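--- STAGE predict ---
source: upstream dedup step, 1 unique chain passed
mode: sequence only
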Amino acid sequence: MKIIVLSLCFVTLLISCNTEIKPETEEQLLARAKAIHERVITLDTHCDINVKNFTDSLNYTQELDTQITLPKMKAGGLDVAWLIVYTGQDSLTDKGYKNAYENAMAKFDAIHKLTTEIAPNDIELAVSSSDVERITKSGKKVAMIGIENGYPIGLDIKNVEKFYNLGARYMSLSHNGHSQLCDSNTGEEKNDWLHDGLSDLGKEVVLEMNRLGMMIDVSHPSKESMRQMIELSKAPIIASHSSARALCNHSRNLDDEQLQWLKENGGVVQTVAFKSYLNTKKEDIYQKERKKLLEKIGDSIHESGNNLFVKKWYSEGHWNTLTKAEKQEINDGAALKVLLNLFEKKSKTIANFPENVSVTDFVNHIDYLVEKMGIDYVGISSDFDGGGGIEGWKDASETFNVTLELVKRGYTESDIEQLWSVNLLRVLDEVEAVAYEIQKS
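--- STAGE serialize ---
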């Protein structure tokens, strides 16, 4: 009996050794990545908006020259876009607060108009993870709202609840420049601070956001502001659009100590596809050669109708000398498109033309963050229409390329699902749970 069993084992071993496991072909990998991309909920936490694109005649149902539109979301398989109520930092005065509040309300109104009047059959506003799941199952796209800069709150903390009731589910307390709530990362360059972290009002706002169930965003505030927010907050926090400082030394990115704080807090960092936050050296080399080529092309063409040479207005130095009206006339005209189209064609014919920052660089940051923090604490953002966009993910129509690169690097479907949406929505759920307990008590 032993001899028969051993013989059968030997035959099985021979068969196993002779059965080759064929490597996955490019076509098979592509098909697998597409299937994963279709199954997971893809969520981008940062897409800026312009209220001019939310009118009856000009809106996101059309193929606009913006990086986010409904056609682009459908083409790229992007399910959820956090549309941003952004306000640039201005003076800490009554007039400044009033203007900021009006700007914020105009953007809230624009987003609500898109989801209730312009395209209610195509996109719907979500305020919770259950909303996201329900809406995506219905086949619609999802809009969520984040606030970039708490400046529009002014000195009235009641505005936090007003913005929450309008659908805002995260807010950063500053942008580029110190707000009345906290210091910005921009103070790092000259070690110039206004509050040494959070102001007294900022501390109240953190607690109010906890009470309401609004996620605290630390992408723009200073490191000390972030430390104090984590110390004070009863709920996890997020970095809605930041990357790894160890790979790209920019104050907008998070260093290893901040990553550890975020992990211990149970939050998430949404890796951002912003060129100068991913690979500054590569971006600088590319832009230098790009400018040379654009100016060379610009010598031979001019703006039809007003004889403005493209070289004159493309060059950053010359551009800054133009009036607001001249800039608007150029942007509304055809010369910019002509110039950029010629550049795209010409650059591809030049041997060794520098590579642009790409999806490869982007996923390098995801790899680093996952290695440092673990898969549970990392997500994805674009900063589209706010400076974001890279080679391979220039707009929402190319969203699949991110999933494809993740598949190529060996991430499982479960990993990819976490990165695209599960981690961020888990934080939102936990923030809501904290708010429930606070309100109950």
